[in-house]
Structure formats: structure tokens, C-alpha cells
Automatic annotation (TrEMBL):
Pfam family of the protein (one): PK_Tyr_Ser-Thr
Source organism superkingdom: Eukaryota
Organism from which the protein derives: Triticum turgidum subsp. durum
Name by which UniProt lists this protein: Protein kinase domain-containing protein
Residue ranges annotated for the Protein kinase domain, each copy included: 1-145
InterPro entries in the record: Kinase-like_dom_sf, Prot_kinase_dom, Ser-Thr/Tyr_kinase_cat_dom
SUPFAM superfamilies: Protein kinase-like (PK-like) (SSF56112)
Gene Ontology terms, MF aspect: ATP binding; protein kinase activity
């Protein structure tokens, strides 16, 4: 498969008949960009899979990435992917499903979409499935789904109510001569 534009803003960096690019000028919408593109300017077919995974999670949850999510008694702004992972980790992934679609959808299919969405937003591009596999897995309930790996940065975050922790922080005073 040929990689496509994962964000319309990305179209500005591609030349005619160009399918892959490494750039220092990152364009697009944060939250939908794969980590390797946002941080290193590397775009590939796996970048599209990441963007698709974000869209799947948004559709099933009815939330936008970076929107306010109900993480505690106080609503907090939080990344949708982190929120999905925290619900999965707590065994409450059903809470991610938008209440407006619960009645009219197959919960098994919605949970499958969430699972495929989480597989698609893996930190490591090599751990993400190919889009052809994603399409086949959405179309065939018998396709066995591997377990997604917890994002590296998620394991180090603490979203406890009102708590904040700082680890390995040093203060340095620099003075010129």
C-alpha cells in the first residue's frame, strides 16, 4: 500500500508523485500526528495507521483528542489515547464508548474497534499493524487481535486527583563569565 496524507496540512510538504518524506518542517494537527512524525519529521504508512487509530478512538468515544475527559471528580484536559489506556488498565474500557451509541451498536464491535484503535496508536511504528490488516480485522470478527503494548510515556504519568510528582529534576544556575 502507498502511504497517504494523514493530515491535509501535510500536503504542503509533498511534491508531485512523492510518497515518503523526511522533513524538519512538521505541519499538521497535533494529536493526530504519529510521534515519529511530530518529533522527527518521519512520515510513512505507519503514520497513517496512527492517525486512523486516533480517529477510531474519537468515533467510538465521541471525544476529541486533547478535549476535557472525565478523569476524576474534576474534569481535566487529557489526551484521548492516555484516557483510553487508563480505562483499559482499570478494566473499564466500556466506559470509553459514547453513551449516545451504546444502545444502537454492538458492544463487541465497539470493543473490537477500541482494541484495534489502541493497536494502531502504538508508540513504536513497527508495533503498529499494517492498514490492510486493520481493514481485514474490522471486517472479520474471527481475526485474533494481539495485545497492544502500553505506551512508554503512559507508564510514567500519574493522573491522581490533585497530585503531582516530580522525578529526577535538577535545578542548574548558569552564569556567564
Amino acid at each position: 500500500m502507498i502511504p497517504k496524507i494523514s493530515d491535509f496540512g501535510t500536503a504542503r510538504i509533498f511534491g508531485v508523485n512523492q510518497h515518503e518524506e523526511h522533513t524538519n518542517r512538521v505541519v499538521g494537527t497535533f494529536g493526530y500526528m504519529s510521534p515519529e512524525y511530530a518529533m522527527e519529521g518521519i512520515i510513512s504508512v505507519k503514520s497513517d495507521v496512527y492517525s486512523f487509530g486516533v480517529l477510531v478512538l474519537e468515533i467510538v468515544s465521541g471525544m476529541k483528542t486533547g478535549a476535557t475527559t472525565p478523569t476524576s471528580s474534576r474534569a481535566r484536559t487529557r489526551n484521548l489515547i492516555d484516557y483510553a489506556w487508563s480505562l483499559r488498565k482499570d478494566g473499564k474500557v466500556m466506559d470509553l464508548i459514547d453513551s449516545s451509541i451504546v444502545e444502537g451498536c454492538s458492544l463487541v464491535e465497539a470493543l473490537r474497534c477500541i482494541h484495534i484503535g489502541l493497536l494502531s496508536v502504538q508508540d513504536d511504528p513497527e508495533a503498529r499493524p499494517l492498514m490492510s490488516w486493520v481493514v481485514a480485522s474490522l471486517d472479520n470478527e474471527d481475526t485474533e487481535l494481539p495485545q497492544p503494548k502500553e505506551p512508554m510515556c503512559f507508564a510514567h504519568r500519574n493522573y491522581g486527583a490533585g497530585e503531582s510528582h516530580v522525578h529526577d529534576m535538577s535545578l542548574v544556575n548558569l552564569k556567564g563569565r
